[in-house]
Amino acid sequence: MYRIKIISIGKNKESWLKTALSEYEKRLTGLMQIQWLLKKKDSDLKKTVLEEKKFHCLDPNGISYTSEGFSKLITQNASITLVIGGALGIDDTIKTKAQSLISLSPLTFTHQHTRLILLEQLYRAIEIHKGSDYHK
Amino acid sequence: MYRIKIISIGKNKESWLKTALSEYEKRLTGLMQIQWLLKKKDSDLKKTVLEEKKFHCLDPNGISYTSEGFSKLITQNASITLVIGGALGIDDTIKTKAQSLISLSPLTFTHQHTRLILLEQLYRAIEIHKGSDYHK
């Protein structure tokens, strides 16, 4: 089973987001273990991230992936840590220590919405790896 | 007020999606009028799209935009028609008649999820144009 740790800012304020995230987490049961570390402030996020040995940052200026490429990145590792910044993005100190910067899109998304997009891509990554019908 | 027509496949099956879409539509009240034309089948979509004089297609192989660039595209036109394909993508006959192909990301999203991402970007487009704090 893959283990994904996601470090981010904020709470699930919006109920639709909570529902959507839990739906994808349900689908991932037994396939991928998602651990959310949600911090209140950028300074708390920084402290938590810098305690990790290895991590990737989500950043609009990072490397672009197709869903197939993202699937390879995810399924080549038994465990991976991903960082989603808050409204002000991710601190440079964090970025320079990251294994890589990953771009989900050149568009800017809210960081809450990014969590949903990421979770759907993680589910898609597994389905691509399995060769299922989910990703046509 | 901007008028956006979105032609797509499917219904709002998932309740979280309904809630999320209606939240952004509420925010857009008075700024942008969103008209959804949701078709049951690809053939119905094709017929409806080809009745339009001008339209853009959302396609992973299309032109990439930053949110700022997308804002310009949207706010330069009083009205615009956007097509989101179904699970099998958009028919080539439709694509060749499109004004342009727009890519939201090289990643593949579900077409239902694409509707939410698009709606958030339309709201963001307006806020960027207004110079508000929404897009930092």
Task: Map the helices and strands.
Two copies of one chain form a homodimer.
Chain A: E1 2-9, H1 15-27, E2 32-39, H2 42-50, E3 56-64, H3 67-75, E4 79-84, H4 92-97, E5 100-103, H5 111-130
Protein described:
Two copies of one chain form a homodimer. The first copy, chain A, is globular, with a radius of gyration of 14 Å. Chain A has five helices and five strands. The first copy, chain A, has helices at 15-27, 42-50, 67-75, 92-97, 111-130, and strands at residues 2-9, 32-39, 56-64, 79-84, 100-103. The first copy, chain A, is an alpha/beta fold and 136 residues long. Chain A has one domain (2-130): SPOUT methyltransferase, trefoil knot domain (Alpha/beta knot), CATH 3.40.1280. The model of chain A has no long low-confidence stretch (mean pLDDT 93). Chain A has a five-stranded parallel β-sheet with strand order 2-1-4-3-5. In chain A, strand 3, helix 3 and strand 4 (79-84) form a beta-alpha-beta unit. The interface between A and B is medium-sized, with 30 and 30 residues.
